[in-house]
Amino acid sequence: MKLGNTGLDAQVIQKLMSAPILAPGGEVIGVIQISRKAPRPAAAGPDFTPDDLEKLESIAQRVGRLMAGKV
What we know:
The chain is an alpha+beta fold and 71 residues long. It has one helix at 50-67, and strands at residues 12-22, 28-38. Strands 1-2 form a two-stranded antiparallel ribbon. A hairpin with a 5-residue loop joins strand 1 and strand 2 (28-38). The longest helix is centred in the C-terminal third of the chain and has 18 residues, at 50-67. It starts with 11 loop residues before the first strand and ends with a helix.
């Protein structure tokens, strides 16, 4: 995975947000990542907000329950 400004017109990851997928016991069983790609950081759109991270963490919790069969 390419990160940062390469100086080329390639679409590379400029912004990245991650949240762990946890089993009911708290064990990390995966990770969800959301990225924004662009040739330059300014072209990748706004930074992720704390609210964006909160939403991603909520989704990761649901995925963890689904993977454990405890919906």
